[in-house]
Amino acid sequence: MKQLLSQLVDGQPLSAEQAIEGFELIMSGQAEPAQTGAMLALIAQRGPTVDEVVGAATVMRQKAVPVNVPEGLTIIDTCGAGGTGSTFFNISTTAALVAAGAGRPLGLGVAKHGNRSVTSRSGSSNVLENLGVNLQADPDVLTKCLDEAGMCFCFAPAHHPAMKYAGPVRAALGFRTVFNLIGPLTNPAGAKRQLIGVPSPEVADLMSQALLRLDAEHCLLVHSVLPDGHSLGELTTFGPAQAVQVHHDMTKSYPIDPAALGMPFALPDSVTIQTPADSAVIVKQVLDNEAGPARDITVLNAAAALQVGGVADSLEEGLELAAAAIADGRAKNVLDTLIQLTNA
């Protein structure tokens, strides 16, 4: 580790092999806390390279507690990179419920990877726990959830025990590190199709290159900017978003304009929350097919998830599938089944 730290101090990035070596020492508890903090800080100061992201993700994948996927089911994830300080309801989690409702009959399941809130007002686990989902369900229960509900929730602390060594150091540092980027790259069910919200175009470019190296099949990284200049890692009806697609070993950037899809414009205040309980109320309203900005935004993100999952050929088709899953109660049934199975 000392040799790797000396190289970083000299301003030389780590190769993928060196990053694997360094993060293996961190995630196996062999590195001293001071060494872990130094390595994370030195990488964060200049920004991680693709090699360093790939190396860290590779080690975390190797040490993850896996979720077995039912035969014949394609898995997607809607886990974002975070870091935007979102004040909105849990968009990606609600979209995951809707995508599962629409996708399960078509052979598509959602393994939603997530954690407690760090920068936002409500993390995915916060709102699901508030809704009654047991976050500590065993991996075999999660496999059953995928089969019967079309969705499971992979609570990050339960699937990445190796993070116990880095967790206290990350908390003490108090700034974003490379670990913020590898959460979406380490899905316990091995999802290779993902909708990923990112805090900036630069992060989208970095993660798209890492995904290419990590054998992604079809991913969409999205980023938008609110009228006040605040970054958001979601698709919304507040305005256009920029997307980077990773597909067929290639990347492509393009805008996504909700207005061009016929979606009504909304103001950010219309979906702002203060607590996870507030978010849970909105999730229930969306699943009850209550019209409004929250439902529109959910349908838009679910449509993108269904497209990367391969069951919708376009966003337009995805919008139809997502809206139908809400209207006929399939999306609500996903949540009800998740609650029942994880608490059995």
TrEMBL record:
<dbReference type="GO" id="GO:0000287">
    <property type="term" value="F:magnesium ion binding"/>
</dbReference>
<dbReference type="InterPro" id="IPR000312">
    <property type="entry name" value="Glycosyl_Trfase_fam3"/>
</dbReference>
<feature type="binding site">
    <location>
        <position position="80"/>
    </location>
    <ligand>
        <name>5-phospho-alpha-D-ribose 1-diphosphate</name>
    </ligand>
</feature>
<dbReference type="Pfam" id="PF02885">
    <property type="entry name" value="Glycos_trans_3N"/>
</dbReference>
<feature type="binding site">
    <location>
        <position position="124"/>
    </location>
    <ligand>
        <name>5-phospho-alpha-D-ribose 1-diphosphate</name>
    </ligand>
</feature>
<dbReference type="GO" id="GO:0000162">
    <property type="term" value="P:L-tryptophan biosynthetic process"/>
</dbReference>
<dbReference type="InterPro" id="IPR036320">
    <property type="entry name" value="Glycosyl_Trfase_fam3_N_dom_sf"/>
</dbReference>
<keyword id="KW-0479">Metal-binding</keyword>
<dbReference type="Pfam" id="PF00591">
    <property type="entry name" value="Glycos_transf_3"/>
</dbReference>
<comment type="pathway">
    <text>Amino-acid biosynthesis; L-tryptophan biosynthesis; L-tryptophan from chorismate: step 2/5.</text>
</comment>
<feature type="binding site">
    <location>
        <position position="234"/>
    </location>
    <ligand>
        <name>Mg(2+) 1</name>
    </ligand>
</feature>
<dbReference type="InterPro" id="IPR017459">
    <property type="entry name" value="Glycosyl_Trfase_fam3_N_dom"/>
</dbReference>
<feature type="domain" description="Glycosyl transferase family 3">
    <location>
        <begin position="75"/>
        <end position="331"/>
    </location>
</feature>
<keyword id="KW-0808">Transferase</keyword>
<dbReference type="InterPro" id="IPR035902">
    <property type="entry name" value="Nuc_phospho_transferase"/>
</dbReference>
<comment type="subunit">
    <text>Homodimer.</text>
</comment>
<feature type="binding site">
    <location>
        <position position="92"/>
    </location>
    <ligand>
        <name>Mg(2+) 1</name>
    </ligand>
</feature>
<feature type="binding site">
    <location>
        <position position="80"/>
    </location>
    <ligand>
        <name>anthranilate 1</name>
    </ligand>
</feature>
<keyword id="KW-0822">Tryptophan biosynthesis</keyword>
<feature type="binding site">
    <location>
        <position position="234"/>
    </location>
    <ligand>
        <name>Mg(2+) 2</name>
    </ligand>
</feature>
<feature type="binding site">
    <location>
        <position position="170"/>
    </location>
    <ligand>
        <name>anthranilate 2</name>
    </ligand>
</feature>
<keyword id="KW-0460">Magnesium</keyword>
<keyword id="KW-0328">Glycosyltransferase</keyword>
<feature type="domain" description="Glycosyl transferase family 3 N-terminal">
    <location>
        <begin position="2"/>
        <end position="64"/>
    </location>
</feature>
<keyword id="KW-0057">Aromatic amino acid biosynthesis</keyword>
<dbReference type="GO" id="GO:0004048">
    <property type="term" value="F:anthranilate phosphoribosyltransferase activity"/>
</dbReference>
<dbReference type="InterPro" id="IPR005940">
    <property type="entry name" value="Anthranilate_Pribosyl_Tfrase"/>
</dbReference>
<dbReference type="GO" id="GO:0005829">
    <property type="term" value="C:cytosol"/>
</dbReference>
<feature type="binding site">
    <location>
        <begin position="90"/>
        <end position="93"/>
    </location>
    <ligand>
        <name>5-phospho-alpha-D-ribose 1-diphosphate</name>
    </ligand>
</feature>
<comment type="function">
    <text>Catalyzes the transfer of the phosphoribosyl group of 5-phosphorylribose-1-pyrophosphate (PRPP) to anthranilate to yield N-(5'-phosphoribosyl)-anthranilate (PRA).</text>
</comment>
<comment type="similarity">
    <text>Belongs to the anthranilate phosphoribosyltransferase family.</text>
</comment>
<feature type="binding site">
    <location>
        <begin position="112"/>
        <end position="120"/>
    </location>
    <ligand>
        <name>5-phospho-alpha-D-ribose 1-diphosphate</name>
    </ligand>
</feature>
<feature type="binding site">
    <location>
        <position position="115"/>
    </location>
    <ligand>
        <name>anthranilate 1</name>
    </ligand>
</feature>
<keyword id="KW-0028">Amino-acid biosynthesis</keyword>
<protein>
    <recommendedName>
        <fullName>Anthranilate phosphoribosyltransferase</fullName>
        <ecNumber>2.4.2.18</ecNumber>
    </recommendedName>
</protein>
